[in-house]
Structure formats: C-alpha cells, structure tokens
Amino acid sequence: MSTTATLPAGASAADAPASAPASDAPAGVPAAPRVRGFAYWLAEPAPAAVPLLRKRVRAVLAGWAVRAEVADVLLLAVSELAGNVVQHAAAGGRMRIGLAFDGGWLRLEVADQGAGSPRLPNPAEEVDPDSENGRGLLIVQLLAVEAGGELRFLAGEFGASVCVLLPVA
C-alpha cells in the first residue's frame, strides 16, 4: 500500500487564492475557514487493506480536527466503498482512496480500475431483505444526505469511482 501524500492543512482564509468564491454564509454567521488538505492512498484490493485505509483516513481526519459525527460518516463510507472494491474489482487491479478538505467541504473518493460502473440499487426491487449484501451504497448515500452532503458516481482516468461530499461547518 502506498503511503499518503498530505499537503499542509494550516492555510487560513487569508491564504486562499484571489479566485476563491465568496462565502455563502448568511450575514452575521462566520464563514467556514478555507483550510486545504489532500491525502491519497493506492492499495491492492485485498480485505486486509480495508482496516488499514480506515485507520489512515481516521488519522488524517483527526489532524484536520473534523467533528466526530462527520468523521464517522466518512469512516463508514471508506469501509463500505473499499469493501465494494475488494469484492468487485478485477484481479490484479489497484484501488485509490483520495481525501480532500477545501472551503468547508470534505471529499472522499474511492476508485478502482474496473470497467464496471457502480450504481445504487432500487431497494424496492433489487435488495433481498434476507441478503447480507446489497445495501452499502444506499447506506452511504442516506448518511451523506442526512449530513447535508451527497454521493456521486464518476468515471475517470483511473476507472470508476464513488465520491462522498460532506460539509464541515
């Protein structure tokens, strides 16, 4: 597993580039600080990688002083999404986990080199109530939306990826 490449997370609003968008905070409410940071890991899609990735993400989130309830959503997302890559990735592939913090938003992206594209199942039609599998993406989506964020599916150079965006006020 590759190690993280973390950029300093100590930038303040005064350090933001001139092209940074203005705050969307209502009058009288302080804007979220423009702290920036990035970390990523490359790993073999093996079951042993999942707890190591979760531990590394936890350490980065602690270093960024992310609130526990937001960190918990991202840690569950890392477990579910990396577990999906382990279960569905093509043999010999790699998975990439990226974590970014910028402008009051956290972004977690989990990608694999597989040709398939992830999608949310329709719970009423496709999820067997007795099955132990098939609910991970739905759970991650519900938690992200409940926290004010969203779940996205992307296709890129590395392959298919799932992205979780969460606000951190």
UniProtKB/TrEMBL annotation:
Residues 45-144 form the Histidine kinase/HSP90-like ATPase domain. GO terms for molecular function: ATP binding. Keywords: ATP-binding, Kinase, Nucleotide-binding, Serine/threonine-protein kinase, Transferase. Gene3D superfamilies: Histidine kinase-like ATPase, C-terminal domain. InterPro entries: Anti-sigma-factor_SerPK, HATPase_C_sf, HATPase_dom. It comes from the Bacteria. SUPFAM superfamilies: ATPase domain of HSP90 chaperone/DNA topoisomerase II/histidine kinase. Residues 8-27 have a biased composition (Low complexity). Residues 1-27 are annotated as: Disordered. This is ATP-binding protein. It comes from Streptomyces flavotricini.
